[in-house]
Amino acid sequence: MIYDAAVIGAGPAGITAALYLVRSGVSTALVEDGAAGGQILSTAEIENYPGFPKGIKGWELADLFEAHLSPYPVERIRARIARAEAGAPGKPALLHADDGSVLQAKAVIACTGARHRELGVPGEREFAGRGVSYCAVCDGNFYRGMDVAVVGGGNSALEESLYLARIVRKVYLIHRREAFRGDRIYQDKVRSTENIELVTSCVVEKIAGQSAVETVAVRDVRTGGGRTIPVSGVFLYVGMQPSSGWLPADAVLDAGGFVQTDAEMRTDVPGFFAAGDIRAKHCRQVSSAVGDGAAAATSALSYLEQWHA
Ligand code: NAP
């Protein structure tokens, strides 16, 4: 079967794109290798998505997105796309999954988002799952009443520090600069939370322990002085790594691997569109992912009209 459109990735951008496509009557496949929801599944509380003035838990919003899409005849495909080939005029794109299966679609919308980036310090990989974590919502409960470190200065680090501070005894928030990149509202909350200690202008040098994490060693970039902080867990939030490696080689990426698109979500490959956190852009929010998804679907529908003309 050749689908009119294939949406790869079922986070907020992918769900929205699939919803717009299927409601427009085109045959749509939504490909996802895990549970639908994307990053919101590992976000404790979403406070800035309109319509939920009291905030909403990430998994609850994912459930609502899913409930909105489920009545429609979208073909749900469980697969990980490893490689894509652009279609020639009149020929569909080929999407090669890592299980050997091949999906064919006239238009493709890339919504595969981004994963948490590794910090790259000694002990990080060794203690992954034994004290080193990239998901406070998933693992925070293991550290109830203990001391933990959070590394990073963006919205993720600030938000997850606030989440952890409600569970653990103390959070050391370690950031390599004095100023935080995250939103002012979270900075103010972090500064006024008693059990969060700011360890700014410090870089992590090593995560160490016996069978599990016991310490994190930091160096002050201003003085050169070192400090070893006893912690049971280290939560790393040092940015995102886009999942864009599967796109055709002609798709133009920025230096960080994020996909360049125009304002209508078109990539440089005809028939390929991108939406959500995989895009090179400044604002990475659930609301902007949803907007991207709607715009990408609209552009894909125009592309399909030309295809059928
Ligand atoms: P981010 O905004 O890119 O921040 C990454 C942080 O990690 C920065 O503070 C950066 O330091 C630090 N960092 C990067 N490499 C490092 C290294 N090698 N050593 C030490 N520190 C390092 O990433 P994010 O917080 O994961 O957020 C990703 C996107 O999602 C952002 O656009 C963010 O606004 C959005 N987001 C929004 C919300 C919300 O609005 N509620 C929640 C979560 C995420 P520098 O500041 O010095 O570069």
Question: Care to describe what's here?
Answer:
- There is one protein chain.
- With about 300 residues, the chain is α/β, with parallel strands linked by helices.
- The chain folds into two domains: about 1-115 and about 240-309, 3-Layer(bba) Sandwich (FAD/NAD(P)-binding domain); about 120-235, FAD/NAD(P)-binding domain, CATH 3.50.50.60.
- Helices cover about 25% and strands about 30% of the residues.
- The protein has six helices and 19 strands.
- It has helices at about 10-25, 60-70, 135-140, 155-165, 185-190, 285-309; strands spanning about 1-10, 30, 45, 55, 75-80, 80-85, 95, 100-110, 115, 130-135, 145-150, 170-175, 195-200, 200-210, 215-220, 225-230, 235, 240, 270-275.
- α4 links the parallel β11 (about 145-150) and β12.
- NADP nicotinamide-adenine-dinucleotide phosphate binds near residues 152, 159, 176 and 203.
Question: What's the gist of this structure?
Answer:
The protein is elongated and about 65 Å long. The strands form 5 sheets. Strands 1, 2, 5, 6, 7, 8 and 19 form a 7-stranded mixed beta sheet that branches. A 5-stranded parallel beta sheet has the order 10-17-11-12-13, with helices on one face.
Count the DSSP helices: 6
Structural class by helix and strand composition: alpha/beta
CATH class of the largest domain: Alpha Beta
Number of strands: 19
CATH architecture of the largest domain: 3-Layer(bba) Sandwich
Globular, elongated, flat, extended or rod-shaped: what is the shape? Answer: elongated
Termini separation comes to: 20 Å
Number of domains: 2
The largest β sheet comes out as:
7 strands, mixed
Overall mean pLDDT stands at: 96
Listing every helix as H and every strand as E from the N terminus to the C terminus, the arrangement reads EHEEEHEEEEEEHEHEHEEEEEEEH
- Strand percentage lies at 25-35%
Output the CATH topology of the largest domain: FAD/NAD(P)-binding domain
Helical proportion, percent range: 10-25%
| Rg calculated over all Cα atoms | 21 Å
Low-confidence parts? none
Bound molecules: NADP nicotinamide-adenine-dinucleotide phosphate
CATH homologous superfamily identity of the largest domain = FAD/NAD(P)-binding domain
